[in-house]
């Protein structure tokens, strides 16, 4: 859409959107009575603009970061397209109502330019085979985002890694660009090592595991377990070089992790990737005293999500402590009918109560005959969105079957629950290594070597899933050891986000580093200090 067509319009009473809608104008307030670098340094609050990627697993944590920074005195503006803004509006509203300087600024999704139908603005709205279309759309957002950043001229832009060209915009505006990544530090190191060392170059079989060089501990992966953009031609893969150059030129990278979990990878990260700074600010889901915002986290005020929450909480309240197996595979993964059927039978065969979340697109024709009737007293199967963080902290939940998405990993660790790992795509087979090998807080759903890219991937059988669940839920020394290590790891994660902990400090450091960047710029230019 031509930039000159953009205009700021208010949402009208029918909810119809203008080309661009400022959803919240936070009245300027006196300094917030919260811990704030801005207060102590007697500087004016920083104005930061955040650009999330079009996936819930990127959007939710970046909005949380914007909130946490707002709680430290930053004036945070999140740039989001209408459907994505709707998912986080309740969270932003609650933060704004509590007095934080935080707002959403909507811009149109480039539907016509990218060939996506109106209303499809998030990975979760597409089957995995078509997700490349969302990445293709990103290039078309550039003129709009450039226009908005130029118009508002923030003190820094915090952009998801999928928008590497924001470094050029930041340079033009004379502000720092900070990258937000929804990946973990280990995944970054593995990607780099695979590209730099080519450990698969003489390996003929896709399912043969080989050591990944230069990491601080042994780690074996098969080519089939690497993310699609390392092994196939994808839109994002074609951007990799640009992404790496932008990473190096950025002030640094914000990561949803903590030094207690991933500190050992930082040496490789800084040395080999030439990244100037990292701020490990997680686990983000723990860094939240606002239980009301946790409840709607990422699901918006969609009635189905609100209804699911009520059903889950009511059902869980009738279950015994630590008895329920919670199974959820992220915001956009999908299974074949055959695989769904095996999951259903595996949950049933485990003998434990279970809460299983399916995606809307999963259909129902796979349902084993009589399944619903047989499990109705001890199983709850829901479609759509549930408040995962809230459910994981419920006293009735005793284990987490997870696809090892990075957020789910952080949330699983934070909950102190043992996990059954079921990686599906992207970097999830790498994250599984953290759960099963490094921290030993979970077990694999299956020992077979599977594929991130093959749609006819190896089926995990019901008996394998039931056995894995039993090995962390049932009595026995091994299961008790896994559960104890999970509790201990959660303690470390909790300490990181507490006041004075490593992640709490990292958030303060991030603010200070932006001030220092501007101080240095002014000193270099011999200008008066006005920030
Ligand atoms: N999530 C949620 N409810 C759902 C499904 C997912 O709250 O029904 C959240 C989950 O808590 C996590 C994010 O969505 O924060 C999923 O991110 P992750 O990195 O684990 O996986 P992805 O969606 O990228 O596969």
TrEMBL record:
Pfam families: UDPGT (PF00201). One of its GO terms (molecular function) is UDP-glucosyltransferase activity. This is Glycosyltransferase. Belongs to the UDP-glycosyltransferase family. InterPro entries: UDP_glucos_trans, UDP_glycos_trans_CS. CDD domains: GT1_Gtf-like. Keywords: Glycosyltransferase, Transferase. It comes from Zingiber officinale. It is an enzyme of class 2 (transferase). Its EC number is 2.4.1.-.
